[in-house]
C-alpha cells in the first residue's frame, strides 16, 4: 500500500511528463496555425505557461526530495510527437488540432485537480497551491479554445471552399 506522499510523487512525475508531451504538441500546433495568427499567438502564450507548469512540477518534486522520471518524460515526448504528426496529416489539421488541444487541456485540468487533492492528503499545501495555479491556467486555455471552435471551423470551411450551405449567423 502506498502512502499519499508516494502517490503524490508518482502523480507529479506523471504530470511533468504530461507537460513535456504538451510542449511537443504545442510546438507543432504553433507551426501549423499560421493561417490563424490569433490562434498561433495564444498557443505561444500557453506554451510559455506550459513551461512554467513543468518548472512548478519539477520544483514540487525537488521539494519532496524526488526528481522527474526520465523514462516517463521520454515516452511522453515521443507520444506528443506522434499525436501532433497524426493530426498534421489531415486536410483540416487546424480543426483537428483545436479538438486535440481542447481535449488535452481538459485532461491536464483533471490531473491538476487530482494532484491538489493528493497534496492536501499528503500534508503538502505548497504543492496543492502550485497544482491549483496550473489548474487555473489549463481551465482558462480550455475555455479560450472552446470559444474558438466556431471561428476556426468557419475559417477552415471558407479556405477549403466547403462552406456552401453553412450558416454563419
Q: What would you say about this model in short?
A:
It comes from Aerophototrophica crusticola. This protein has 169 residues and is an all-alpha fold.
Fourth-level CATH superfamily: Ferritin, core subunit, four-helix bundle
Number of helices: 5
- How many domains make up the 3D coordinates? 1
Give the rounded overall mean pLDDT.
85
Share of helix, binned: over 70%
Based on the structure given, which CATH architecture is correct?
Answer: Up-down Bundle
Report the CATH C-level class.
Answer: Mainly Alpha
Extract low-pLDDT stretches.
73-78, 163-169
Q: Please tell me how large the radius of gyration is.
A: 18 Å
Could you give the distance between the termini? 57 Å
CATH topology: Ferritin
**Total number of beta strands:** 0
Q: In one word, what is the shape?
A: elongated
The fraction of residues in strands falls at under 5%
Question: Which structural category fits the helices and strands?
Answer: mainly alpha
Instruction: Give the topology string: H per helix, E per strand.
Output: HHHHH
User: In this structure, how is the largest beta sheet organized?
Assistant: none
Amino acid at each position: 500500500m502506498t502512502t499519499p506522499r508516494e502517490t503524490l510523487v508518482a502523480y507529479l512525475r506523471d504530470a511533468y511528463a504530461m507537460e513535456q508531451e504538451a510542449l511537443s504538441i504545442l510546438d507543432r500546433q504553433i507551426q501549423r496555425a499560421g493561417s490563424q495568427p490569433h490562434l498561433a499567438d495564444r498557443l505561444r502564450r500557453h506554451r510559455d505557461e506550459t513551461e512554467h507548469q513543468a518548472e512548478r512540477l519539477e520544483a514540487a518534486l525537488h521539494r519532496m526530495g524526488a526528481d522527474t522520471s526520465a523514462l516517463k518524460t521520454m515516452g511522453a515526448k515521443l507520444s506528443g510527437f506522434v499525436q501532433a504528426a497524426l493530426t498534421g496529416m489531415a486536410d483540416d489539421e487546424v480543426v483537428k488540432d483545436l479538438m486535440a488541444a481542447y481535449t488535452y487541456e481538459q485532461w491536464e485540468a483533471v490531473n491538476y485537480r487530482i494532484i491538489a487533492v493528493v497534496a492536501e492528503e499528503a500534508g503538502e499545501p505548497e504543492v496543492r497551491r502550485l497544482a491549483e495555479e496550473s489548474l487555473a491556467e489549463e481551465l482558462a486555455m480550455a475555455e479560450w479554445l472552446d470559444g474558438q471552435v466556431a471561428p476556426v471551423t468557419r475559417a477552415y470551411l471558407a479556405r477549403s471552399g466547403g462552406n456552401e450551405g453553412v450558416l454563419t449567423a
